Amino acid sequence: MHTNHAPGPENTTPKIVGHRGASRQHTENTLPALEAAVHHGADAVELDIQYTRLGEPLVFHDADLWRIADRPERVRDLCAAEVRGLVAAAATRRPGCPRGSIHVPDLAEAVDALAPHPIEVFVEIKADGVETGNIEDWVAATVDAARPLKKNLAVISFNRAIVRAAQLAGAPRIGWIIEQWTRRTRETAGRLQPDLLVASTGILPRAPAPLWRGGWQWMIYEVNDAARTRLLHARGADYIETADPEALIHALRPHGEREEN
Fold it and tell me: At residue 251, what are phi and psi to the nearest 5 degrees?
């Protein structure tokens, strides 16, 4: 298995993050996707959290079941068992669906699978599944559930209230996902002072403009080719999210370097 990238000035590539796990080969946000990212040598994985009506944190990206299960229900209106049942029922109707790829894990299951490995875990809490009055309690419970990850845990979100709640709950690291590249966003980042700023490639200024400097690291998503990864690293990206960590790690490996077992 490829070993994680060594930190330090001699490291010429950013850390590689499995976006929703190894989501090109496996159903996103499932245990097979997360475990495959670990197996292929990713430095980190990113997973998403949606809450059920009972506040149960499920590892799931969308607010509703349309894309995954062809159903109109919202996750926040169901309990965990109902979400799993509807997703599983839809998967059985899809020809060639890989066995074991349909299970919707809760956060505790994902933490149990990832905690034994020296891998960073970015837990993205989706704002569309949180009721305003429950933010502090639900986020605090999420941080508590993820504590077995210890210092490898980072809680990230588009929603600043969620980021602040994670900080108050004692998350080892917090990250803010920005939606615009504006002076106002830069000023807000300066006040919030997250450990990480996260951005899509689509909002970045044109190269070679550097990423904003501050007391944070940068994570950029989604990037699947080596040339763009190297360019973003040169501009200040510390982490790159990819759907295919195995292929990107292989492409970034110096010519002639052999994979370690």
Answer: -70, -30
CATH code of 132's domain: 3.20.20.190
CA distances from 163 to 31, 52, 143, 155 (A): 25, 20, 11, 7
* Rounded distance between C-alpha atoms, residue 27 and residue 95, angstroms: 14
Cα separation, 13 vs 151, whole angstroms: 22
HSE of 197 in the Cβ direction (CA atoms, 13 Å)? 27
**Distance of alpha carbon 200 from alpha carbon 111, whole angstroms:** 26
Rounded distance, CA 44 to CA 37, Å?
A: 8
- pLDDT-based confidence at 256, cuts 50/70/90? very low
Domain assignment present for 133 = yes
DSSP character at residue 48: E
Strands (DSSP E) found in 75-132: 120-125
The pLDDT tens digits for 27-69 are 999 999 999 999 999 999 999 999 999 999 999 999 999 999 9
Q: Name the domain count of the chain.
A: 1
The model carries a pTM of 0.91
